[in-house]
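Per reviewer request, we include the raw input and output of the structure prediction for the construct analysed in the revised manuscript.
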Amino acid sequence: SSKEAFEYIIKYKGKLTKPEEYGDVVIRSNEDGSVLRLKDVARVELGSYTYGSANLVNGKQGITIGVLQTAGSNANEIQIAINNLMEKAARDFPKDVKHLMLYSTKKDLDQSISQVKHTLIEAFVLVFIVVFIFLQDFRSTLIPAIAVPVAIVGTFFFMQLFGFSINLLTLFALVLAIGIVVDDAVVVVEAVHAKMEHKHLPPRAATISAMSEITGAIISITLVMSAVFLPVGFMKGSTGLFYRQFAFTMAIAIVISAINALTLSPALCALFLKDTHSDKTNLTTKGFKDRFFTAFNTSFNTMTGKYTNSLKFLVRYKWVSLGGLALVTLLTVWMVRKTPTGFIPSEDQSFAVIALSMPPGASLERTTQVLHKADKLLKPMESVEAVNIISGFNIMTNSTSPSSATGFVLFKPTKQRGKIKDINGIMNEMRAKLATIDGGNFFVFTFPTVPGFSNIDGLEMVLQDRTGGSLDKFSGIAYNFIGELMKRKEIAVAFTSFQSNYPQLEMEVDDIKAKQLGVSVRDVLQTMQAYFGSVQVSDFNRFGKYYRVMVQADVSSRAEPSAIAGVFVKNRNGEMIPINTLVKLKRVFGPETVSRYNLFGS
């Protein structure tokens, strides 16, 4: 151990964090004692990790953040958390920095939930009015009112049991189911009242008598309606996947409604109802309510009589009934053939996407210029709220590409859109404006109503080469297929993002010569990557963030294939070998990216 009175710790400054510090790095010592520093041969600056894209929001520099939901998570909770996070972060933003939510599936989800709430309220109100007017008993309105929430809560239980979630499909099923689950309870109440009115039975006896007659009818109706939806849930393919949760949710709600009608509703009838029909002999001398019911009953009986007479007429003259049935059948067939069809109905999401495809090999600067022209045409439109353009990103293949760009357009609420309020009309106006721009092809589309089926609101098809042939041959087949699709009247437009004519340089390395000169092929490839691409050599932390130190040749030193003449690689003896003695660049054409998802149509 040391006997000194003081101890010292040796420290080193560690990683470099400033451009000037990297510029002072000594890369060589000369024989005359001078040194060659990095700043003598290179330009060192603090910049971006990549310059392969440009992002503008309403014509100003911006950042686009995409959040994708993982399987099994709650989309609504995720988006609520994101909104809260952004509102909290916005408090610390600089004065001129703002954030904007361009696209959110929560809007559609909230609208669907709101529709379920409205349907529930409307169902309660309508059931109360109809039951109270026809049966003229307040207690009778309570039984259907109790049956509806019981059926819906029971449906939620089985949805949880089967692994279903509250989404656009199940909410759509619940909206339809609410109107169905009311019917069974109303049938039970009406049947019990009929027994009390015509046979003068007390509520309990009337309930037993009524259920002995309508139990079979309720069961048969339930089986028939379930048989309509259940087979759809067992269909295979995308159709079965799309409608499975919808079909099973409907079937569950119908079955639970029938169980309520056979158990809960009769019990409530026996407990709640009273025989009010025997006390309707002299209602004209009572209050307004009784006089109103007397007038309603008289009018309803008159209408019932006319309806009965019309049925007798149709029974007597069967050709009228059969002729009407034939006419309705023919009209139905005609309407089915004429009515437009679709796999997933398109919805106005106040949002559209623009995909720009430039000629193969177009630079990012050229793509950005064309996209700026599009931005200037779209922003002044009455219906447009915000425009976000991203050059260098291909939304069709979810990949980066200097000759592709993507634009996201947020529309104003329907009432504030000006003359054209329909989203299809607005998109047609956008297409007309973008068609005036030379230098690129624009495609305007919307996202699908139900996320996950495609990148676009249309039909997506996949071509797969199973022969192992050349990509040029595959490209020809793809374009021939597009041509055949365009000939069909049901296809509005068909296009493919696959192109095999991108100009490329194929690098050929002379392995034998490299071996003779003592150069590793791996070193050749790494040198080419560092000069003409980029390579990370270090990293550091600054401003509380992580930075990468990247090395690459300056733009002017890699603009032409001839620049390879100025590149050297070190052999195992430490000698610098001109890399153009080992490498040749051959001009070829090929696809920029190859994936399984290349063909789109709508």
